[in-house]
Design a protein that fits this description.
α20 links the parallel β1 and β2. By secondary structure, this protein is mainly alpha-helical. α4 packs across α5. The chain has a five-stranded mixed beta sheet, covered by helices on one side. The longest helix is centred in the N-terminal third of the chain and has 28 residues. It is 62% helix and 4% strand.
């Protein structure tokens, strides 16, 4: 381990540089903004509800009342619950996810070194992942996709050495981290299958002599925990009439030919800039071609794990295709196969350019260029979508209190096409245009209407309910409904 210290220090220095380059200290204080603001707000709403209402861990809620009292759940809300225990929950959640992301990247160094046995190239593999706009943006965010990937990377780093050393304690720890990854994001549970298939292939000679009791026990326990959680989540949502959180498959065969083509176009072309800078993707594709051509020169174990990761990435695409059409953060799972293929490319590179200083220099300069261009892409994603900033200000919240719109009142927030974007800023339970607001008005289910767009005063459905204005703030009008 002592021989890795200098490279670990370089990684740590890179983490500090990333924090400064992308101004993470400022972002750690920011409420949801940028790409997929809708989904970010859902995560933040669950965190806020834990804190605001002091909820037990197994009784999560959001602000939108489409379910009874807003009780609903998707992924395992571990990081939301932890962040809610801090006074500054937004900082705690963003910082926690960033910390996990960096630990995951550090784990990739040891994964890469396991196969490459070259510290410089292992470092290059990890640094390349830090130039992915998708990972950088969602690694410092509210969604659990990148933290789940980080736990998978940690699990893989431990698992590979556990198999090599035949160490059952390390094997147990690897399954613990695989399980946490699968709880945070169901798709990451596929890593357990990939790792298990790899283990059985690697140990087939020994298995014939002695059954791997410890491995089978860890596998069954991991599988049981995942099944129990998602069974609980589905039951919890069913009991509270929640139909919002996605806990099912949406496979490719349920889609039209147009949607299949659209998904393929986005994954391969129009949204490919989320993976890496496009010229870098071309370089990687060329490298992949060389790797495939010279695959016989590589270790069988590396080829096996690459084949398995690619196979189950295809399985993932087939099973979740509909979600991949409109949600690029679902591409996070691809980075399991990406990592192992990058290692394969670097292994081939090392076969022919092990002592080529010129090639090493070009590789390093390419990485530096990727960092610069990644910053531009991440900045674009930060500006992709924004809320009205006044909704989340202390001044507006004090204004609402003086108008009688306290935290116990039910509000209808318009216009807002999402369940929780404005409600999570207002910190109040209620409804939005995501719900059937005509029915909500007719049935007098809301106490106040908060209208953030003057044009909506011309809405025929609303007009007869706009008779009792109790106040206004920065072009936001508040109406009493009952």
């Amino acid at each position: 381990m002592r021989f890795h210290y200098s490279y670990i220090v370089l990684l740590l220095i890179t983490f500090v540089a990333i924090v400064l380059l992308y101004d993470f200290p400022s972002l750690w204080q920011q409420l949801p903004q940028g790409s997929h603001l809708w989904r970010q707000a859902d995560c933040w709403a669950m965190t806020e509800n834990y804190q605001q209402f002091n909820l037990p861990f197994l009784k999560p809620e959001v602000y939108n009342l489409q379910a009874i009292n807003g009780k609903s759940v998707g992924e395992f809300p571990l990081t939301y619950f932890i962040a809610a225990q801090f006074s500054n929950a937004v900082f705690a959640l963003r910082f926690l996810h960033t910390f996990l992301f960096f630990i995951g990247i550090m784990a990739t160094y040891f994964i890469a070194f396991f196969f490459l046995q070259r510290r410089f190239l292992a470092l290059c593999a990890s640094l390349l992942l830090l130039t992915s706009p998708l990972l950088i943006f969602y690694g410092n965010n509210f969604l659990t996709d990148v933290p789940a990937l980080a736990f998978s990377y940690i699990a893989w780093a431990i698992f590979l050495y556990a198999v090599a050393k035949q160490n059952n304690l390390l094997l147990l720890f690897s399954f613990v981290f695989f399980t946490i990854a699968g709880l945070l994001k169901a798709s990451q549970a596929l890593n357990i299958i990939i790792a298990s298939a790899f283990f059985l292939i690697q140990q087939k000679e020994q298995i014939r002599k002695k059954p791997p009791i410890a491995f089978l026990l860890f596998f069954m326990l991991s599988f049981a925990v995942l099944v129990l959680w998602y069974a609980f989540a589905k039951r919890y949502n069913y009991m509270h009439h929640d139909k919002y959180f996605f806990l099912n498959l949406f496979p490719v065969w349920k889609l039209s030919a147009y949607d299949i083509g659209l998904g393929a176009w986005r994954m391969a072309i129009s949204w490919s800039n989320n993976y890496f800078w496009r010229p870098t993707l071309i370089v990687l594709l060329i490298g992949l071609g060389y790797f495939i051509y010279h695959r016989n020169k590589l270790d069988k174990s590396l080829l096996q794990i690459i084949s398995l990761s690619v196979l189950f990435t295809l399985v993932y695409i087939i099973l979740f295709y509909q979600k991949l059409i409109g949600h690029e953060y679902y591409y996070t799972f691809f980075f399991i196969a990406f990592l192992f293929n990058i290692i394969g490319i670097l292994k081939t590179y090392n076969t022919f350019h092990a002592e080529n200083i010129f090639a090493h220099t070009v590789l390093f300069l390419l990485l530096l260029l990727n960092f610069i261009l990644c910053k531009q892409e991440v900045a674009s994603k930060q500006l992709d979508s924004r809320n009205n900033p006044f909704y989340g200000t202390i001044a507006f919240h004090e204004c609402l209190e003086t108008l009688g719109v306290d935290e116990n009142k039910i509000i209808l927030s318009l216009p807002d096409d999402s369940p929780n974007k404005t409600l999570s800023l207002l910190r109040r339970k209620g409804y939005t245009a995501f719900n059937d607001y005509k029915s909500i008005l007719q049935n007098r289910q809301a106490d106040f209407l908060i209208l953030g767009n003057e044009d909506w005063k011309n809405d025929k459905i609303l007009q007869k309910y706009l008779t009792d204005s109790v106040g206004a703030y920065q072009n936001i009008t508040i109406y009493k409904l009952k």
